[in-house]
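Quick one: Oxidative stress survival, Svf1-like protein from Basidiobolus meristosporus CBS 931.73, structure tokens please.
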Amino acid sequence: MSTPIYLACDIAEEKNIPLVSQLGCTDLKWTLAGGSSTESATFYIKLDDGGLLFVQLAHSNIGLSPTVQTTAQYFNGEVHKFETANRSARTFQASSDKGSVSVEGMTIVNNEEDSRLDVLITFDTLEIKFNFSIVDCGFQIGEGKTYFGELSPSSFICHQSFPKGTVRGTIKYDDETRDIVGEGYYIHAVLSMKPHEVATKCNLITLQSGDNALSLLHFDTPESFDFIPVTQASLILNRKLVAVTVKNTAQFISTSTDPENGYEVPSEVHYTMDGDTLDGRPFHCEATIKLTSLLMKVDVLSELPYILRKIIQYFFTKPYIYQFFDDAEVTATIGDEEVSFGGKAFFECSFLN
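--- reply ---
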């Protein structure tokens, strides 16, 4: 017998509220939920010089005590820097309004007046400082939360997405300082359950292409929730949020078996998006990415503190993350109008069990 799932889109329809809630910096508040929760802030940034920047702060209560992990990845041609660190949760602090947070080696300051997030992350050999200025607005689906099993604060997942922001800053490594300029995608996620209770695998694509952008998040629930796919996607055209949809597909056209863990890792993925634009026009979009440039293959357990690793090992078999940076093509039909764009896209695929 399956367990019920209460999708954010279905809750919005039942309450007769809009499918899409538009967000600004004032809506970005850290919940620091109790129980077996994880909360993260993640930036996916495409740089104007063709490079990629990935920055994340993750606060977790899965173990016996809270843990905090900071991660940064910089890729630019022959330069590929990756640093991650497990920070003392005792150094983690939130501002009085829960909009800004800091931990040893990292700060995220919510500059509400300027619709901007100011980020600083430091490691022994890497320092990155940048501003993420929101373009147009962010969004969430309905009231933001999808519930698993029951309508309870201990059984939900929430994603607040900001699909385009301009980025300006600097990066220091190997006694060299570089200016960084680009545009990116920011997502604030809260999971009040253990990850394996929510998804078996998930994938994300984000493409920044001049004034346009596409982002899509997709995950499959486990057997206890009938393998239901949960998705949200957005389209930015001419620097405006045009469409947000939950009727999306992510099809792995071709895969190859990773001999280390047996996972079927995609080598080509095709996405579809359907629904209505924010101004009520019928909307259909397709995107394809061929995955040839593997940036990182992450053995999740190897990056975690010992106690947390043992706890997760009890629930999971082999959690792995694969990250790619490859060319993607997008075609969108809005009413009678067709729009196409393309460029380098960041793709991430996670296998949880």
